[in-house]
Amino acid sequence: MADSLDIAAVTRLTGLTARALRFYEARGLVEPLRTASGRRHFDAAALERLNLILSLKKAGLTLAQIQRLTANRRIDLHGLITAQLDHLEAQARRISDAQALLISVKFRIDRGEPIDAETFCSLIRHEQQESTSMSQDQWKAVTDRYFTPQEQAEWVQKMQGLGPEFDQQDYAAQWKALGDEIKAALPMDPAGDAAAAFVQRWYALLKPFTDVATPAMWTGTMKMYDDMANWPVQADPGFDAEVWAFMKEATAARMLAGDMIAMPKVE
């Protein structure tokens, strides 16, 4: 293997960690060579593959999207790029809105207005309410694609069973916090202890839905999230396609290990 590099050399060359390289291998994104003793070595083809992955990640694609794009299967590249552009535009809007709010408040402070913490928080809540209204419109565009009006009516009826104490905004914020935490921890072994802990927290947070969902609702929701790259707008469920794909892998790993995971029976 004179023309190949060991894992330490590749980490220095690419900036990737050894953990990330092992995770990419486990996901089938790269296939290193093996020495007689089992040590990983990366030849020119593997290095080219890693550089491709890094380039696609810089373009904002998730590992799940990269995996589909590089798996020699037919893929709607136009649709994938369109969805990614929608996602980046949504991120840019959120950043722009945050900047506009901060600039506005700073301008008022510079003029001598008495902006205290309570007033600042009030302005943030007002901004969040406007954002929530836009988010609801985005979700309507997504659910209209995957669920009939009759199915959506059943959704409303079932979710009413959660009771008046259920706070949808707080629930969405919990999903956002968990999704961001999982995203920051990637890559990781879907069969490892860290992934198992995330699976436990994921299904604990999902419990209000699993308590009321029918098998048809569960199946339809799984199909909807599996198709996130093709959503007509970039609605934000609190996690992206990469986190969703990882959690499916981690859940399957826990089930293979014999863990009992509460979910409706799929039709």
TrEMBL record:
PROSITE patterns the record matches: HTH_MERR_2
rRNA-binding as UniProt keyword: no
Database matches in InterPro entries: DNA-bd_dom_put_sf, MerR-type_HTH_dom, MerR_fam, TipAS_dom
UniProt KW DNA-binding keyword: yes
Domain of life: Bacteria
Annotated ranges, domain HTH merR-type: 4-72
Gene3D superfamilies for this protein: 1.10.1660.10
CDD domains: HTH_MerR-like
Xref: SMART domains: HTH_MERR
Record key words, sorted: DNA-binding
Record-given protein name: DNA-binding transcriptional MerR regulator
Organism (species): Blastomonas natatoria
